[in-house]
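User: I'm curious whether this sequence folds into something compact or stays loose and floppy. Could you predict its structure so I can see for myself?
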Amino acid sequence: MLQEVCALIESAQSFVLTTHARPDGDAIGSVLGFAHYLRRKGKQATIINCDSTPFNLEWLPGAEEIQVFDGSLDQIRAIAEADVIAIMDANAANRLGPVGKGVMDSPATKLLIDHHTNPERWFDLEYARESASSTGQLVYELIDADDPSLVNHAIASALYTAIVTDTGSFRFSNVSPDLHRLVADMIERGGLNTSDVHSQIFDRKSPSSLRLLSRMLNSLQMAHDDTISYMVISRAMLQETGASIEDTEGYINWGLSIDGVRATLLFTETERGTKVSFRSQGTDHVHKWAQSLGGGGHPNASGAFVRKPLDKTIKLVVEQATRYLDLQAETPGEDTLSEEDQEYLTMLQAVPRKRG
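Assistant: Here's the prediction. I'll summarize afterward.
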């Protein structure tokens, strides 16, 4: 498969790259790293995403050239006339937002580069592996198989960002000795100062994002004999702090840092329902839990969207924990939400909310 993808890249001239809604470090790093590589080979590469680049990733070389889909004639033409459309870090059409329809309708060869489970079957060619730490790792493998001398500072910065964010700074179970060797090669070839990269990604916070973090941590609740933790981000909290959804990247990991916790959940209220993020450690896998709600992801990091109000979603999902983790069931007849939790959610819902 690696040779087939390299042959496709060699034969094609024009590429459109895209990734999932609300792009994270792996998504942005992968599309930028791949675009820089293609351009060094003399190819035309256009990045069109459905959402804007997060604040803490705008420093990446080339980030200013990423287009946000607006339905313009130029963007529609680029998607329709591309030789290849590379769908990166996303393996389902509905994850691409409004870009998805144009991608599906385009006669271009659809190339999937991804590390998530259960890809849809409409891709023409795939370079996908669930065991990979990140999509950024797969992109580097493609470049290394073609011509590693093409790796420069821009490519290394982008792909290192992709890998470091999707591995939790190399602390998740998707990290292997081979990955460390690959990253060492990347650092050397790109002349990276990894301390600077880490600082740009993780140490640039706005005052509003810290206010939101404080409110979220204050919502912390425990369940199932303190083996499950969960936190809440309501629409009211976002409005009152002035923070955005993009500011919440990485917040969920605080719930997993509690001693004895095997899985943590973050419930984010939206106008249409509730987004649920799942994180776990080791063999406590959460992807099937997310899949039962129509979502998916990795064994230790998954997500789902539930079209129910915040309080009903919390009750539903927390009660499901015993089905997907080896946990003792709560006492029969006991409400999963504590009295304090119920009062907190009632208070959140009583706060007037702006429309839109």
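Summary: The first strand starts at residue 14 and ends at 19. Residues 331-336 have pLDDT under 50 and may be disordered.
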